[in-house]
């Protein structure tokens, strides 16, 4: 029977993106799956170069900002854009996440003598399996031997596990080594009397692109080799195993970012895991993974190639074919990656490439960090949408403990203002200054945007304690900055932000390209959203009545959305032409998604203007600047605009144009196609929003269902208000649905056809609440059936 949650290759990986990812929320591994020679690329969320710095901001910032504003208000755009360069962030020892190294394995059989190769990843168990047959040597009797290895990153036990077996007794023989790839790591192989074998590797994060090379964490890798039978011995800096029935490797990593003594922490984890047999380690890992993964399910229809390798299925879609099961697999793969890179106890949030590191993103123009102008946010939208709320916690903990404290220094030093602010990207070291080129780095609402995830967590869970103790205080403090930051436009009386930009694009003024302005639409969206969330949070908690009045007054004076001369939603306060009409960034459309400020029902003219903006981006003279997260945004916008077929076409382009041979794909905007996890998490969010939306105060079932998915089932999709929806549809219409109410209260629900509501078989009173919309009272923990 075919497992729809498993996909496979019939060959080892030749490139990083074709390897299979395993992660436990901190440690990551990419399994290439070579039959005779295996490489498993190792990474860790805490393996960072760089260090904290309090000197990233220009202390003369308040004077410079005031003068830049004066120039912008006076219309001297060239002078303002030149002067603002003085407040560019100072890179200093910014650093980047780096790969740890490689686990290398050399099997003692002839590579030319194997067949029946299969390398698979089962998303439901988070286990990578490599299996193949080895023929007897020439002139040797006997049947072929089946070799298998299983690899998983156990969150339950905090380490990477690799298990080897052979159908031939005493058939497992191999050499094992660790190396630092491009980094000169010292490796020492030891065989303590009380253990079968141990490899240790002392490592240090150092690189010379995003820091000066003199700072970074120290780390330690420790691996224990446990063999059933046979001989195990140290040979130089490697371990040799001969004639064993099975071999299990236990590998742990730790660094000084979170551990005072990384080596001791590694030994402790391995010692605890070594008390358990392999079967129990695997069972503990699977149970821990499935506690999260099994909460959501999706069936969009069968695949025309269910028994073919993933590269062949991708090739068929890229040739114009349809594969609804591939879309469902893509949905679940994004969830798999978030689970693997961001657990409730993870020390850091998922960075640009999750917890994995392709050794490309960390060595090019950008860094392997937390980008705050789209990428971090896109990685975490699915946490609440697909019932992985605990996976959201590392981001919010980092916001509270690292980003906001550093942002207070930036607010005070660069702007001379209260509260906290962050710009375009950040790291474990709490960088909150503008980027080191204001052309792309002057994004003073990056912190406000990522802070809205605090409100999202509350909106989906209705956790009042979280709101009172964590979300509201941080949102309130961010609002304090923007309340003081806004400047009145003398000609209109509107409150404008700035100096700012519309990341990471530019406008034309007198035939030249500029980035810096006052009052870009993205700031109006993000500051408006922040103030609205503070007003709502204060009302729920019944606090800060006077402050709420001030927030409302400021909200009322923000610039309105405007429709430009092309019928488009304006990106800037003035109706400038785009200097880069094909650009991947569409930050002025964030009012469509993730925020519900523009909807077809409530603001139809603005919704149409948003459609025009999308069409213009895609039909620019240079063609749309195709990039995976940008494509995901276009899909999400179309889903929110109820344009089901447009959303589906955009999702297909993601697979056909942005995709590669596997479900992981590198951005084509970077050298060697650096991987970004938002290719996957953004696609998961887009599919979820096509099936369920809740941003307008009601659960909207199948709001953007395309004709390509006429029948299907979805489970575990979450809506705001603490509701979880399971549903089945046929011929594009809901047949039956179940709504679990986790917190009680009134449920409002919209569907394309009338629905009746029952609880344990008994009718529940439901009243009309609008077109195709009903509402009914719910009790906490009860499941309501709609049919």
What key phrases describe this protein's structure?
787 residues, alpha+beta, 25% strand
Q: What's the N-to-C terminus distance?
A: 31 Å
Helices, by number, come to 17
Strand order of the largest sheet: 1-6-7-8-9-16-13-12-11
Extract low-pLDDT stretches: none
Assign an overall shape.
Answer: globular
How many DSSP-defined strands? 34
Report on this model:
The chain is α+β, with helices and mostly antiparallel strands. Helices cover 31% and strands 25% of the residues. It has 17 helices and 34 strands. The strands form seven sheets. The chain has a nine-stranded antiparallel β-sheet. Strands 2-3-4-5-10-15-14 form a seven-stranded antiparallel β-sheet. The chain has a seven-stranded antiparallel β-sheet with strand order 17-26-27-28-34-30-31, covered by helices on one side. A hairpin with a 4-residue loop joins strand 6 and strand 7.
Layout of strands and helices, then pairs:
Blueprint: E1 6-9, E2 20-23, E3 27-31, E4 37-48, H1 61-73, H2 77-83, E5 97-107, E6 114-122, E7 127-134, E8 145-154, E9 159-166, E10 172-179, E11 186-190, E12 198-204, E13 218-228, E14 231-235, E15 238-244, E16 246-255, H3 262-273, H4 278-293, E17 297-299, H5 310-318, H6 324-341, E18 370-371, H7 375-385, H8 393-415, E19 425-426, H9 438-441, H10 446-461, H11 464-485, E20 487-488, E21 495-496, E22 507-509, E23 512-514, H12 521-541, H13 545-556, H14 604-618, H15 628-640, H16 644-658, H17 678-691, E24 692-693, E25 699-701, E26 712-719, E27 723-730, E28 733-741, E29 745-750, E30 757-759, E31 762-763, E32 767-770, E33 773-778, E34 782-786
Parallel strand pairs: 25-29
Antiparallel strand pairs: 1-6, 2-3, 3-4, 4-5, 5-10, 6-7, 7-8, 8-9, 9-16, 10-15, 11-12, 12-13, 13-16, 14-15, 17-26, 18-19, 20-21, 22-23, 24-25, 26-27, 27-28, 28-34, 29-33, 30-31, 30-34, 32-33
Helix pairs in contact: 1-2, 5-16, 6-17, 7-10, 7-17, 8-10, 8-11, 10-11, 10-12, 11-12, 12-13, 15-16, 15-17, 16-17
């Amino acid at each position: 029977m075919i497992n729809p949650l498993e996909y496979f290759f019939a060959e080892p990986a030749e490139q990083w993106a074709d390897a299979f990812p395993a992660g436990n929320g901190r440690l990551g591994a990419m399994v290439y799956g070579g039959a005779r020679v295996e490489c498993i690329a190792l990474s860790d969320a805490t393996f960072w170069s760089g260090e904290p710095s309090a000197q990233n901001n220009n202390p003369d910032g308040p004077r410079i900002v005031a003068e830049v504003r004066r120039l912008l208000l006076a219309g001297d755009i060239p002078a303002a854009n030149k002067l603002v360069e003085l407040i560019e962030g100072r890179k200093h020892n910014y650093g980047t996440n780096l790969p740890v190294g490689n686990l290398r394995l050399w099997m003692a059989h002839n590579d030319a003598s194997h067949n029946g190769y299969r390398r698979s990843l089962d998303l439901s168990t988070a286990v990578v399996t490599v299996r193949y047959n080895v023929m007897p040597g020439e002139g040797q009797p006997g049947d072929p031997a089946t070799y298998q290895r299983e690899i998983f990153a156990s969150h339950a036990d905090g380490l990477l596990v690799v298990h080897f077996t052979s159908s031939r007794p005493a058939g497992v023989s191999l050499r094992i080594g660790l190396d630092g790839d491009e980094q000169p790591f010292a490796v020492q192989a030891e065989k303590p009397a009380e253990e079968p074998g141990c490899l240790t590797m002392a490592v240090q994060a150092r690189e010379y692109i995003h820091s000066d090379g003199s700072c970074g964490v120290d780390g330690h890798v420790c691996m224990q080799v446990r063999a059933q039978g046979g001989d195990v011995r140290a040979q130089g800096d490697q371990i040799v195993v001969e004639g064993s029935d099975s071999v299990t490797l236990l590998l742990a990593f730790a660094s000084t970012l979170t551990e005072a003594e990384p080596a001791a922490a590694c030994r402790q984890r391995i010692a605890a895991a070594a008390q358990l047999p392999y079967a129990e380690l695997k069972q503990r890992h699977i149970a821990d993974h499935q506690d999260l993964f099994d909460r959501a399910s999706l069936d969009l229809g069968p695949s025309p190639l269910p028994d073919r390798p993933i590269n062949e299925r991708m090739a068929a879609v890229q040739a114009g074919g349809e594969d609804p099961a591939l879309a469902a697999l893509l949905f679940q793969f994004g969830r798999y990656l978030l689970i693997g890179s961001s657990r409730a106890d993870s020390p850091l949030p998922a960075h640009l490439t999750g917890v994995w590191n392709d050794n490309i993103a960390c060595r090019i123009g950008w860094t392997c960090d937390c980008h705050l102008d789209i990428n971090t946010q896109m990685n975490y939208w699915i946490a609440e949408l697909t019932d992985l709320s605990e996976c959201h916690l590392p981001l919010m903990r980092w916001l509270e403990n690292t980003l906001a404290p550093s942002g207070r220094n930036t607010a005070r030093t660069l702007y001379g203002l209260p509260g906290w602010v962050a710009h375009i990207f950040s790291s474990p070291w709490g960088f909150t200054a503008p980027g080191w080129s204001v052309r792309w780095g002057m994004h003073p609402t990056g912190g406000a945007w990522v802070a809205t995830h605090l409100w999202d967590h509350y909106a989906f869970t209705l956790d009042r304690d979280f709101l009172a103790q964590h979300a509201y205080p941080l949102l309130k403090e961010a609002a304090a900055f923007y309340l003081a930051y806004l400047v009145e436009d003398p000609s209109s009386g509107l409150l404008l932000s700035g100096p700012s930009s519309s990341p990471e694009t530019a406008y034309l003024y007198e035939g030249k390209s500029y980035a810096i302005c006052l009052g870009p639409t993205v700031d109006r969206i993000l500051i408006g959203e922040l103030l609205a969330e503070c007003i709502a949070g204060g009302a729920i908690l019944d606090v800060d009545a006077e402050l709420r009045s001030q927030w409302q007054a400021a909200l009322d004076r923000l610039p309105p959305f405007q429709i430009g001369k092309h019928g488009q939603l304006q990106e800037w306060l003035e109706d400038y032409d785009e200097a880069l009409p094909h650009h991947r960034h569409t930050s002025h459309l964030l009012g469509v998604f993730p925020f519900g400020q523009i909807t077809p029902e409530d603001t139809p003219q603005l919704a149409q203007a948003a459609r025009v903006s999308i069409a213009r981006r895609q039909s620019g003279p240079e063609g749309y600047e195709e990039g995976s997260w940008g494509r995901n945004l276009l899909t999400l916008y179309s889903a929110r605009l109820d344009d089901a077929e447009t959303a589906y076409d955009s999702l297909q382009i993601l697979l056909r144009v942005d995709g590669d041979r596997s479900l992981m794909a590198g951005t084509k905007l970077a050298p060697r196609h650096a991987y970004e996890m938002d290719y996957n998490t953004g696609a998961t969010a887009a599919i979820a929003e096509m099936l369920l939306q809740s941003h307008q105060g009601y659960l909207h079932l199948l709001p953007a269902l395309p004709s390509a998915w006429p029948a299907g089932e979805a489970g575990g999709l979450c809506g705001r208000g603490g509701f979880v929806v399971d549903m089945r549809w046929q011929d594009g219409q809901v047949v039956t649905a179940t709504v679990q109410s986790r917190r009680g209260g009134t449920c409002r629900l919209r569907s394309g056809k009338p629905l009746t509501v029952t609880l344990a078989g008994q009718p529940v009173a439901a009243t009309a609440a609008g077109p195709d919309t009903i509402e009914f009272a719910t009790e906490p923990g009860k499941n309501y059936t709609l049919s």
